[in-house]
Amino acid sequence: MEPSVGEWKSVAQKVIGLIGGMSWESSAEYYRIVNERVRDRLGGLHSARCLMWSFDFAEIEALQHAGRWDDATALMIDAARRLERGGADFVVICTNTMHRMADQVQAAIGLPLLHIADPTAERIRAAGLRRVGLLGTAFTMEQDFYKGRLVQKHGLEVLVPDDADRSTVHRVIYDELVQGRIEEASRQAYRGVIARLVERGAEAVILGCTEIMLLVRPEDSPVPLYDTTAIHAEAAVELALSTR
What InterPro entries does its record include (predicted)? Predict the structure, then answer.
């Protein structure tokens, strides 16, 4: 029987530590999804036990484009340690690009870090797919920290757009999506990028930037889209409610 108003029902939930603000638009989606999924699972008035450290993204973006990754790593480690001191049971980095320093963050804290690429790859493999397209920031599409994990740990074949398409995808993320702008012309441009990946053999496409889900919908692609924001947030709920 559900408890009456005023009664308290103890439910075992781990505390999710969210490193957000990169950008806050996608972090708001994380917060919404984790709370909706906990309510769906537990019912009633339940919501997620979570903490969020939210960056000023202008500071992070400046470090990214200046190539000052060591300074960005120090900030990420500081954020994770703040969450650890605050009582988080595990850490979620609410962005794909900043998983560039996921290993360093994990080594600096005593909590598990739930890597965004792992639940995404697991869903793709469970669907019987192996060759995937990857959309994201230029850092995610061009550097090996993300693609390499998908290939080496999960056995996927990863296709990225050509130079011109990578430039378009990156520009839309930073000039529009992280600023809350959703442009129909950009949706059409992304449709073209996706179509060209499919022509090259992509069986699915990973939306490997947490803002892309604000722009691209399933109907914009002839193959399945794997939204890392939703997948990562849902995996965080699974871990929070698990007995592991």
Answer: Asp/Glu/hydantoin_racemase (IPR015942), Asp/Glu_race (IPR001920), Asp_race (IPR004380)
Q: In 95-222, where do the E strands start and end? A: 131-135, 157-159, 204-207
d(CA 159, CA 148): 12
* Structure tokens that stand for 71 in this block: 């300074």
Q: pTM value?
A: 0.89
What mean pLDDT comes out for the span 50-75? 96
* Residues involved in catalysis: 95, 209
Going by CATH, does the domain composed of 117-228 fall within 3.40.50.1860?
yes
Arch. (CATH architecture) of 16-115+231-241? 3-Layer(aba) Sandwich (3.40)
pLDDT over 70 (residue 6): no
Distance CA 21, CA 92 (A): 12
What average pLDDT does range 154-174 have in this prediction? 96
